[in-house]
Amino acid sequence: xxxxxRRIDHVNVTTPEELERDMVAWYEEVLGLTRIAKPPGxxxxxxxxxxxxxxxxxxxxxxxxxKTAHFGVVVDDFTGAIERLRSAGCHLEQAxxxxxxxxxxxxxxxxxxxxxxxxxxxxxxxxxxxx
Length: 131
Known about the structure:
This protein is of the alpha/beta class and 131 residues long. 16% of the residues lie in helices and 33% in strands.
């Protein structure tokens, strides 16, 4: 059976309004994502970032994020990414071991959980038609 979905377009993380600036700075400076313009018709608060072929949207919402909900970011240099996160003062959460990948979790300033992972053997690129 063929999937209806072709690829992930974006993920959305939330933050209370008082942490909006910290969140935008964290995604730019700590994760190194590129901020992009939000299209007309979107809410004025928050920010959008590019991440490979997908986007990360930061939205202002007073509700706390769920404890285990998360999205994953693939990095080329796992050790370098860990060093960058630690030097930014991030607490790293251990992840269960999975064959063929190195991984851990980190939380952004509003508590959203992000999996940082690197594949030991680079996975074959996903065919957009077969996801």
